[in-house]
Amino acid sequence: MIGRLNHVAIAVPDLAAAAAQYAGALGADVAPPQDEPAHGVTVVFITLPNTKIELLTPLGDKSPIAGFLEKNPSGGIHHICYEVVDIQAARAKLVAEGARVLGEPRIGAHGKPVIFLHPKDFNGTLIELEQA
Amino acid sequence: MIGRLNHVAIAVPDLAAAAAQYAGALGADVAPPQDEPAHGVTVVFITLPNTKIELLTPLGDKSPIAGFLEKNPSGGIHHICYEVVDIQAARAKLVAEGARVLGEPRIGAHGKPVIFLHPKDFNGTLIELEQA
């Protein structure tokens, strides 16, 4: 069912510093920051030859990553995103298997339908599935 | 400098259960477990179309992931691995930039030279660099 690893999302307290580090010390292809007000984050996309890294920092008062950064002030890997062909079919299969899916599919930061899976059911890992 | 994302490593408390979940509920291509006694882990490789996921569980008394699982009993993302062309050049560049590199290059679980970078210097993320 799962296909490509679409991205790894890393929450960071200082987006400019993290972006400069990936562009400088790590020598990666780093894009300018983009505000995603509907998702409560500002994102920097890092393009690797085979996938993407997304550096996230909170935007606004109700950011979904604010709590994570309170618990992990230095930052950390927040989630990984796998691609699926059909988000509704994926959701139905996971629910049938007894996994906790966090809500109905919604439009994610890339303009495509996504769901999130409960980390307690997946080895402490927050998994996003995106209909590619 | 960094190239492909070689793998994402997820530490898990129950390797058989995690492997069964990735093969079943998530429908991925999951290989049989491999003991890596020199690295203190048993590994299950999951092949995605563009990269790999490695499920790790401790092997033996001195596993480098035992402490992580004590702090994260459900498991969690342990590290991400980026490929580089020249591990010595990568190490020298990072040291020159002031980043803490954890020791000299050594032969990693794939039989290739690797170094690890201090998570405190990289947004709370343990980064492995592997000479591809």
Automatic annotation (TrEMBL), chains A, B:
CDD domains: MMCE (cd07249)
InterPro entries the UniProt entry points to: Glyas_Bleomycin-R_OHBP_Dase, MeMalonyl-CoA_epimerase, MMCE/EMCE_epimerase, VOC_core
Name of this chain's protein: methylmalonyl-CoA epimerase
Cross-referenced Pfam families: Glyoxalase_4
Keyword annotations from UniProtKB, A to Z: Cobalt, Isomerase, Metal-binding
Superkingdom: Bacteria
NCBIfam families for this protein: metmalonyl_epim
Gene Ontology molecular functions: metal ion binding; methylmalonyl-CoA epimerase activity
Record field: catalytic activity: (R)-methylmalonyl-CoA = (S)-methylmalonyl-CoA
Enzyme nomenclature, EC number: 5.1.99.1
Enzyme class, UniProt record, top EC level: isomerase
Domain VOC as annotated: residue spans: 4-132
Family the entry assigns: Belongs to the methylmalonyl-CoA epimerase family.
GO biological process, one term: L-methylmalonyl-CoA metabolic process
